[in-house]
Design a protein that fits this description.
alpha+beta; 2 domains; 6-stranded antiparallel sheet; flat
């Protein structure tokens, strides 16, 4: 094959690839206009009716959040729902927001000792806008080394459903439903319908469902379990090392504090000795008269 023939073949292949890319883009745009936009209309209507019924019934739905170093934070859904529908020329997002009120009387009171642990738990509470740290305790150097924690406040939850002509799929994002995490799942346009809306509704009211469940290979499940065990062992060793370091630092602080106090005492004694010596010299200059 000559050079010109090779170049012509490459041009044809590139043109075919460009045509395929353009075809896929057109298909995604068509899926958005013909399937996803009407589906989001139906989903918005479904969520509107769902939130109205939940507001009327106000079921007592408990949520539980595991917090490392603290325990389990218990809360109950506050059925004050806010539904937003944000439309753009080639995209749309429907967002449902509400809150979980922390049940302080059902959450544990935990005494935390150690500067690193207090900072870690205090930082976690602060990042997630949870209150409840009290009775701070400091060491001789003024560093926070202990505190009492009991969770209080409100945890925001949101469920957003986004679609656009560029991707041609429904992107679902759930925040703070299962722990303090954000879970994302995409659904092809052809799978968006009443069955999916029902799964979304059951997930929001915290009923058992398969909305976010995926079948994982057994080998991958074993890998995940192994990783969790390794992380737990690592966390235990980190806590042990942290405790040892804090104990050593506390000993050093006490040693230096005691040394500083002792040094001050010796300094005063030396000063007193110098004063005593000066008084003795004055006495030699002015001897007492013998009677």
């Amino acid at each position: 094959m000559g050079l010109l023939e090779e170049l012509e073949q490459q041009a044809q292949m590139r043109g075919a690839g460009g045509d395929d890319a353009q075809r896929r883009k057109t298909e995604r745009g068509t899926a958005y206009r013909e399937k996803l936009e009407p589906a989001l209309d139906a989903l918005h209507a479904f969520l509107t009716e769902l939130s109205q019924k939940l507001y009327t019934l106000k079921p007592r739905t408990a949520l539980r959040y595991a917090v490392p170093g603290y325990g389990e934070v218990v809360g109950y859904i506050d059925h004050d729902y806010r539904l937003r529908d944000e439309k753009q020329p080639s995209s749309r997002e429907v967002v449902l927001e509400f809150e979980c009120a922390i049940a302080t009387d059902e959450s544990p009171v935990v005494e935390i000792e150690g500067a690193s642990r207090v900072r870690a738990l205090g930082g976690f509470f602060q990042r997630h806008r949870i209150g409840g740290m009290s009775q701070p305790r400091k060491d001789a150097a003024g560093e926070l080394v202990g505190a009492t924690f009991r969770a209080k406040g409100r945890i925001p939850l949101s469920a957003s459903f986004h679609a656009d002509a560029e991707s041609g799929v429904l992107r679902m994002t759930f925040s703070h439903f299962d722990g303090f995490d954000t879970i994302v799942k995409t659904v092809p346009a052809g799978e968006v319908g009443e069955a999916l809306y029902d799964q979304i509704g059951r997930f929001i009211v915290r009923e058992q469902n398969t909305l976010l469940r995926e079948d994982l290979p057994e080998a991958y499940r074993k890998q995940l379990r192994s990783k969790v065990q390794q992380l737990e062992i690592k966390r235990r060793w980190e806590n042990k090392i942290s405790d040892t370091r804090e104990h050593e630092l506390a000993e050093l602080r006490r040693t230096y504090t005691a040394a500083g106090k002792l040094g001050g005492l010796f300094g005063r004694m030396r000063s007193f000795g110098r004063i005593g010596g000066a008084i003795g010299q004055l006495r030699n200059l002015f001897p007492r008269k013998k009677k």
